[in-house]
Amino acid sequence: MHIQQCTTEQDLARYTKWLASSEHNSLWQSAAWKHYQETLGREVRIYTAHDGDSIKASALVVIDKTIGGLSTWDIPRGPLSGGQGVGSRESRVGELLKEIIEDAKREKCMSLYFSPTFSLPPIPDSLLPDPRNSRRHQQPEATRIIDLTKSEEDILMQMKQKGRYNIKVARKNDVTVKESDDIDAFYALTKETGKRDGFTGLSKRAYQTFLDEVPGSFLLLAYLSAEVDDKQTKPIAGVLSVVYGSQGTYYYGASSHAHRASMAPYLLQWESMQFCKVKGCTSYDLLGTAPSGSGDDHPWKGITAFKEKFGGEEVLYAHEQEIILKPLASTLLSLKRKVIG
Predict the structure, then answer these.
(1) Do both 225 and 112 map to the same domain?
(2) CB count, 10 Å around CB of 78?
(3) Domains in the chain: how many in total?
(4) Does 152 share its domain with 291?
(5) Shortest CA distance to 1 belongs to which of 67, 87, 79?
(6) Do 284 and 198 have their domain in common?
(7) Can you count the helices (H) and strands (E) in the chain?
(8) Distance from CA of residue 287 to its chain's centroid?
């Protein structure tokens, strides 16, 4: 088995074909995600492990550089492994990660993160340093996925009663949902939501780039119908979602506290599901929830209560792993971020 990077259009085309056939195919390991991250100024590499001409394992790596040439390397929802051939899944992934780690060490990487969709079997110590459970929440440990192959009536019926009720409330309040490209309006809502809920959102450029550069992305904004014809009207809520393959994914959401009684976010999610269903999606991923039984101190507990009202099936992921390559630098940077935010 040999390992290489995708450096040509031919390499990338072969990788994309292999990814499409993988049971673990995901947006975060795709050429589309590579393009999006590169547009944001990050370096992205795709490593592939080959048995002859066939790809047997892969990893898309996002490299985020910081002060002093230091960096963190992230393999979102990867590595991937599949198919028959040389070596077991753990040995393939182990050899692939070993190659990546050797490159990372040479290039002043502080930590390597990886978060496969499946639980990796123990990888021989001879191949890897000991990984540990990551303390961050970059990739969700759980999600809820809604089956869109059902009829709209059945999708509504599998929701919790409160979810259906809040969708009806939004309609009674004459909330109207429209597809839009108005990132300025959405960004204003995200700033309000972040201030209210105590988190820092992305830059406006990041949201704009997501909408412009990620194929299948779409923005829905909610308005009060009585004011739709007023050119000065501002939206009261919004969702930025994406269609990738046969799955729709809710990615970012925001809402106005002043209009919280309108229940616009519930109607927005329902309209987003319908939008994805029309596009041929068979499932809708609510993206991230706190795992069942994780306790009230989980940082995603609040948003989980909202998402659970839409029903769906809980899907659990392997915990994101971290391999620390520069312990002192990693600790100092973490302390700095805690101080300055």
Answers:
(1) no
(2) 24
(3) 2
(4) yes
(5) 87
(6) yes
(7) 10, 15
(8) 6
Cis omega (within 30 of 0) on the bond before 79? Answer: yes
What pLDDT was estimated at residue 160? Answer: 97
pLDDT surpasses 60 at 228? no
Copy the structure tokens of residue 229. Answer: 């014809």
Across 104-113, 115-124, 255-264, 306-315, least confident range: 115-124
> Which positions ≥6 away from 229 have C-beta within 8 Å?
none
User: What does the alpha-carbon distance between residue 163 and residue 157 come to, in Å, rounded to a whole number?
Assistant: 10
Of 154, 54, 50, which Cα lies nearest the Cα of 95?
50
Dmax (CA) for the chain in angstroms is: 67
What is the C-alpha separation between 175 and 169, in angstroms, rounded? 9
Tokens 């959102």 sit on residue: 201
3 state SS of 263: coil
Residue 169: CATH number of its domain: 3.40.630.30
> Domain range spanning residue 208?
142-316
Q: Are residues 147 and 132 in the same domain?
A: no
122/150 same-domain check: no
Q: Using CA of residue 190, residue 251, residue 173, residue 167, what is the dihedral sign?
A: negative
11 lies in the same domain as 87 = yes
User: Per the structure block, which two tokens stand in for 105?
Assistant: 């060490």
Q: Which two tokens stand for residue 101?
A: 């780690």
Do 90 and 175 belong to one domain?
Answer: no
The residues that bridge with 22 in the sheet, in sequence order, are none
Same domain flag for 84 and 65: yes
Give the mean model confidence (pLDDT) for residues 221-232.
70
pLDDT in tens, 6-64: 999 999 999 999 999 888 899 999 999 999 999 999 999 999 999 888 899 999 999 99
Return phi, psi of residue 54, to 5°.
-95, 135
pLDDT tens profile 172-184: 999 999 999 999 9
Measured CA to CA in angstroms, residue 4 lies from 7, 33, 34 at distances of 9, 19, 17
pLDDT given at position 35: 95
Annotate 218-245 with three-state secondary structure.
EEEEEEEHHHCCCCCCCCCEEEEEEEEC
pLDDT digits (tens, 9 = 90+) for 100-131: 999 999 999 999 999 988 766 666 566 667 78
